Amino acid sequence: MRRTERVAILLEMLPVMYPNARCLLDYDGKPEKLLIATILSARTTDAAVNRVTPYLWKKVRNIEGLSQSRKELIEEIVHPLGFFRSKARSIQEAAAWLTAHKETLPGTIDELVTIPGVGRKTANVIIGEVFQKPAIVVDTHLSRLSLRLDLTRNTQPQKIEADLKILLPKARWTSFSHQLGFHGRQVCLSRNPKCSNCEFNEFCPKKDVTLS
Ligand code: SF4
User: Fold this and answer.
1) What is the pLDDT of residues 131-159, one digit of tens each?
2) Which of 24, 53, 103, 201 is most buried when burial is the number of CB atoms within 10 A of its CB?
3) Protein residues with CB under 6 Å of any ligand 1 atom
4) Is residue 60 a contact partner of residue 66, using CB atoms and an 8 Å limit?
5) How far away, in angstroms, is 193 Cα from ligand 1 center?
6) Could you read off the pLDDT of 31-53 as tens digits, one per residue?
7) How remote is the CA of residue 192 from the centroid of ligand 1, in Å?
8) Distance CA 18, CA 187 (A)
9) What domains can you pick out in the chain, each with its CATH number?
């Protein structure tokens, strides 16, 4: 099956399978909190971030408080998320930037990545979630599934994003990212993907999948 045919089937099946797919980070509808949560979500799960952020905001109260808090306190709070020193530094620098800019987030990827601690993944989350513009968020799930389903041969997030942008209709960029992410969490697990129970089993090329 050609890649474009596979994508057409996925575009049809995914909204039916995951009608409620969405961003899983908690942020009280506040863009600045989403930015901080997304920075914290690197190399860990959204659920783990959601367990930490309520305590973080309780302790620092707001963005300015986060920027001015003792480094050691922030490191202690984010410790369960791993990479705690760099994450603490990143969110405090981002908070300082936000404070200096009256907590107003810019609406383009190019501007967002100038904020300290903000990479392309975080910028795309903000574009899709806050500005409701089409965005492809290449996280660990989308990377893995795009490779297994042979939607790309690239492993670098920016190149995967570029490949998916060519394959997908723009209006589906954000929803496709969320839906494939849900499939990655529930079925196409990093270790031991449940291929025999997967609705894509018949047409999935299963690139680099070792089935036990
Ligand atoms: S068939 Fe297997 S590798 Fe392909 S999407 Fe499903 S679980 Fe993942």
Assistant:
1) 999 999 999 999 999 999 999 999 999 99
2) 53
3) 148-149, 187-188, 193-195, 198, 200-201, 204, 206, 209
4) yes
5) 6
6) 999 999 999 999 999 999 999 99
7) 10
8) 12
9) 3-20+136-197 (1.10.1670.10), 31-129 (1.10.340.30)
